[in-house]
UniProtKB/TrEMBL annotation:
Pathway: Cofactor biosynthesis; (R)-pantothenate biosynthesis; (R)-pantoate from 3-methyl-2-oxobutanoate: step 1/2. It is an enzyme of class 2 (transferase). One of its GO terms (molecular function) is methyltransferase activity. Mg(2+) binds at D45, D84, E116. Catalyzes the reversible reaction in which hydroxymethyl group from 5,10-methylenetetrahydrofolate is transferred onto alpha-ketoisovalerate to form ketopantoate. It comes from Paenibacillus kribbensis. Its EC number is 2.1.2.11. 3-methyl-2-oxobutanoate binds at D45, S46, D84, K114. It holds the Pfam family Pantoate_transf. This is 3-methyl-2-oxobutanoate hydroxymethyltransferase. Its cofactor is Mg(2+). The gene is panB. Binds 1 Mg(2+) ion per subunit. It catalyses: (6R)-5,10-methylene-5,6,7,8-tetrahydrofolate + 3-methyl-2-oxobutanoate + H2O = 2-dehydropantoate + (6S)-5,6,7,8-tetrahydrofolate.
């Protein structure tokens, strides 16, 4: 039913066809993204920042992702949907991780999951793939570990870091991941990783050498996101501004009795009006 699958994605990498990915969190965002021809939708835990108003992804729960995934799945029935496993839902044990992943698949109706981390999570990646669930890796800046990393910093700037990223990428491919998100990685390192792997890399703030790109919905359209002005984001519209001025106009119309106007009202039969007012 989906236009894309992980076999076709690998083929697209081979043929040099870039993959477009965008986050979505509800029915309308998913529907519009699908209509616009996006390759893949991510129900990202960036949900915490741009939809729920938290200042990190750490408070996002499995229930939150399941709830929003269901809405996205209803809005984009023909698009390959990936959901994030949230903070600390895949670290206690493999079996507990698989229970959460089962919920995303069976209750959230997504087609794949994304896990942050490199070689250290390869056991969970292997077990998930063995269960028939495609896994998208995510290395570089991993926001769930922001307190460990010490901020939202660019990764891969020195040789040790670059080497570690390359090793993590290879470990994820070995473990069976179908692709890897590279977040805030220098262009040189992201390009080298993309060339080394046979699975597609999907970059965000990772330069031009990646096999695909991903952006956060609210950043792309400037929809009340505090992050749209970041260097790695390209904004295509000011939808937040459009919504604000529309609501301002509505408020002004109500205050000035310009709304409702004649075309918005319903009329009763004249005889009823006569009976009411005499
Ligand atoms: O949650 C998210 O939106 C993400 C992307 C930025 C890759 O993980
Ligand atoms: Na995320």
């Amino acid at each position: 039913k989906q236009a894309l699958n992980i076999v076709k994605m690998k083929k697209m990498k081979k043929e040099g066809i870039p993959l477009s990915m965008l986050t979505a969190y509800d029915y309308p965002s998913a529907k519009i993204a699908e209509e616009a021809g996006i390759d893949m939708i991510l129900v990202g835990d960036s949900l915490g920042n741009v939809v729920l108003g938290y200042d990190s992804t750490i408070p996002v729960t499995l229930d939150d992702i399941v709830y929003h995934s269901r809405a996205v799945a209803r809005g984009a029935e023909h698009t390959f949907i990936v959901a994030d496993m949230p903070f600390m839902t895949y670290h206690s044990s493999v079996s507990e991780s698989l229970q959460g992943i089962r919920r995303l698949m069976q209750e959230g109706h997504v087609h794949a999951v994304k896990l942050e981390g490199g070689a250290e999570i390869s056991d969970v990646v292997k077990a998930t793939v063995r269960a028939g669930v495609p896994v998208l890796g995510h290395i570089g800046l991993t926001p769930q570990a922001v307190n460990q990393i010490g901020g939202y910093r660019i990764q891969g700037k020195d040789e040790a870091d670059a080497r570690r990223l390359m090793e993590d990428a290879k470990a994820l491919e070995q473990a069976g991941a179908f692709g890897i998100v590279l977040e805030l990685v220098t262009e040189e390192v992201a390009t080298a990783i993309s060339k080394e792997l046979s699975i597609p890399t999907i970059g965000i703030g990772a330069g031009r050498g990646c096999d695909g790109q991903v952006l956060v919905y609210h950043d792309l359209i400037q929809y009340a996101s505090p992050y749209y002005s970041k260097r790695f984001v390209k904004t295509y519209a000011d939808v937040g501004g459009l919504i604000r001025s529309s609501i301002e106009q509505y408020v002004s119309d109500v205050k000035g009795r310009a709304f409702p106007a004649e075309e918005h009202v319903f009329s009763t039969d004249d005889r009823v009006v006569e009976a009411l007012y005499g």
